[in-house]
Design a protein that fits this description.
Layout (H helix, E strand, L loop, with lengths): L2 H32 L17 H17 L5 H8 L3 H13 L5 H30 L5 H23 L4 H36 L2
Helix pairs in contact: 1-2, 1-4, 1-5, 1-6, 1-7, 3-5, 4-5, 5-7
Length: 202
């Protein structure tokens, strides 16, 4: 793979890990274990994910996240718990893709991967907070199921067709930016009212 493909795969995995870390680890692990997806040679560092212990742990996390993510406010609590876990996991997944002999590239990838995962995590958490404030509970289930589908489709494209990973990364990044912007617009008035209420009661 060329540099563009490597960067695309690393960025895509990091962004996806920001809201579905366990799904990313589980999918990569199974792909390595059974050869279902033809992973390129550059992904040799992901061999550790093929361990049954890692796959099993990821499966437990995936099942727990699948249900927790569809219940109002439980999803926000789950997001809060994973504020540190997802960025670290995203950074490590991105790091596993790059050439281990290139130390400079590894450092850059580690920082950018962690930043990308943190950005997508923050956008997801903010969006879910807004959805939880809405009166219709079906929004949580629909949103979570949509995220599941997007994650599964994006993981397949990234792992099976790494030449398309840069496009996937660009689309994911655009989605994260739009979601963060929408969440900020919705949360800002609430934050202002909260501050005004606090000032009046001091």
């Amino acid at each position: 793979m060329g540099a563009v493909e490597v960067i695309g795969v690393a960025t895509s995995l990091s962004l996806l890990a920001g809201w579905r870390l366990y799904a990313c680890v589980f999918a990569c692990g199974l792909a390595m274990r059974f050869g279902v997806l033809p992973l390129p040679e550059n992904f040799h560092a992901l061999d550790a994910l093929a361990s049954w212990w890692v796959i099993g742990a990821a499966a437990v996390g995936l099942i727990a996240e699948f249900f927790a993510d569809k219940v109002a406010w439980v999803d926000s609590i789950w997001d809060t718990i994973h504020t540190l876990v997802r960025p670290v996991g995203g950074a490590m997944l991105a790091l596993a893709v790059v050439d281990p002999s290139n130390t400079s590239l590894q450092i850059v990838t580690l920082l950018l991967g962690g930043g990308a995962a943190l950005a997508s995590h923050a956008a997801k958490a903010g969006g879910r907070a807004m959805i939880n404030l809405s009166p219709e509970p079906v929004s949580n289930i629909v949103t979570s199921t949509t995220e599941d589908g997007v994650t599964a489709g994006a993981l397949y494209v990234v792992l099976a067709h790494p030449q398309e990973a840069a496009m996937v990364a660009a689309l994911l990044l655009a989605g994260v930016v739009l979601l963060a912007w929408w969440s900020w617009r919705k949360l800002r008035p609430l934050w202002k009212r909260w501050n005004d209420w606090g000032d009046r009661n001091l």
